UniProtKB/TrEMBL annotation:
Organism per entry: Sedimenticola selenatireducens
PANTHER family recorded: MERR FAMILY REGULATORY PROTEIN (PTHR30204:SF97), REDOX-CYCLING DRUG-SENSING TRANSCRIPTIONAL ACTIVATOR SOXR (PTHR30204)
UniProt keyword list: DNA-binding
Molecular-function annotations in GO: DNA binding; DNA-binding transcription factor activity
Residue ranges of domain HTH merR-type in the record: 1-70
One Pfam family linked to the record: MerR_1
Protein name as catalogued: MerR family transcriptional regulator
Gene3D superfamilies: 1.10.1660.10
Length: 177
């Protein structure tokens, strides 16, 4: 059995966090020492590992409590919902990033944003030897295989909604040829 100090160090949590988890019933230690210190078993550590993973995914403690006591379909739906939330947040942050760059009227700032831009992407494809026709075929294949992901990728490049609509329209025509 491990003491609270050893468990907190192992998981990078504060003692206070573990005491709070105990208080709210999220993670009750398996036992207590003669001096009344909390003691954790391997089973407790496995549960804490799950809690830690859910926390890293941004799941609130209240939901984690529910997830630990339910079946996997609820876990899957909760994680899928969180993933969709993160995707929306990322899209929103990219839009904000683009607005700030436009307000500053300095597109060279994009090189410091860790974002792939349309110009960077095209430059990369060209340096890999792709012709315009090959790039069009790439869009056709992407649209045919994963239309939602294709749209999200185009959005991530900072392409305007109107241009995305145009690209997807001719890519769809290329599919039906």
């Amino acid at each position: 059995m491990l003491t609270i100090g050893k468990v907190s160090r192992r998981f990078g949590l504060s003692r206070t966090a573990l005491i709070y988890y105990d208080k709210i019933g999220l993670l009750k230690p398996a036992g207590r020492s003669a001096a009344n210190y909390r003691l954790y078993t391997e089973k407790d550590l496995l549960k804490l590992e799950k809690i830690h993973q859910f926390r890293q995914a941004g799941i609130p403690l209240e939901q984690i409590t529910q997830l630990l006591h339910t079946d996997s379909p609820m876990t899957i739906s909760t994680l899928e919902l969180r993933l969709h939330q993160l995707n929306r947040e990322i899209d929103g942050l990219r839009e904000q990033q683009q607005v700030i760059v436009n307000l500053l009227q300095n597109h060279t700032l994009l090189s410091n944003t860790h974002n792939m831009t349309k110009a960077r992407w095209i430059g990369l494809l060209r340096s890999a030897g792709m012709s315009d026709e090959a790039m069009q075929q790439w869009h056709v294949a992407f649209e045919a295989g994963s239309p939602e992901i294709h749209e999200a990728f185009l959005q991530s490049l900072g392409i305007t909604p109107k241009e995305i609509e145009q690209i997807r329209a001719w890519a769809k025509k290329g599919i039906s040829r």
